[in-house]
C-alpha cells in the first residue's frame, strides 16, 4: 500500500509543478502581449512636430503613431529610427526632435529626417 501511496504523491507533485509552470508561462505571455500605453509615456518612438496637428492616429509603415498638438508617440516596429522619423516627417510635417526610447536623435540625423527628397 505504501508504494501506491508514494506513487500517488509523486503524481500529485508533478501535476502541481506542471500547473504552476503553465500559470507562470501564461502570465508572462499575457504581459508581453499587452499593448503599448501611449498615455503613460511608454511609447518606443516620440517626436515633436514643428506645427501642431489635430488629434490623430496613423499607421505609417508599421509604426502606429498617435499625435496631438505637436507631440507624437509611436509604437515599436522593425523600422530603423531614421526611417520612422523620415516617414513621419513626410506625412505629418517637419520634426523638431525625435527620440527612440530615451535616446534623442542627433542633429545631422534629424536634418536627414526632415529632408524630403
Automatic annotation (TrEMBL):
Signal peptide: 1-32
Pfam families cross-referenced by the UniProt entry: DUF8200
Keyword terms of this UniProt record: Signal
Protein name, entry field: Secreted protein
Taxonomic lineage: Bacteria, Pseudomonadati, Pseudomonadota, Alphaproteobacteria, Sphingomonadales
Amino acid at each position: 500500500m505504501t508504494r501506491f501511496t508514494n506513487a500517488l504523491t509523486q503524481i500529485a507533485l508533478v501535476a502541481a509543478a506542471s500547473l504552476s509552470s503553465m500559470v507562470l508561462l501564461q502570465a508572462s505571455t499575457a504581459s508581453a502581449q499587452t499593448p503599448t500605453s501611449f498615455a503613460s509615456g511608454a511609447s518606443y518612438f516620440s517626436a515633436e512636430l514643428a506645427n501642431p496637428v489635430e488629434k490623430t492616429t496613423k499607421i505609417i509603415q508599421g509604426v502606429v503613431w498617435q499625435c496631438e498638438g505637436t507631440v507624437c508617440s509611436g509604437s515599436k516596429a522593425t523600422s530603423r529610427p531614421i526611417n520612422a522619423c523620415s516617414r513621419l516627417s513626410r506625412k505629418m510635417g517637419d520634426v523638431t526632435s525625435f527620440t527612440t526610447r530615451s535616446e534623442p536623435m542627433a542633429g545631422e540625423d534629424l536634418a536627414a529626417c526632415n529632408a524630403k527628397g
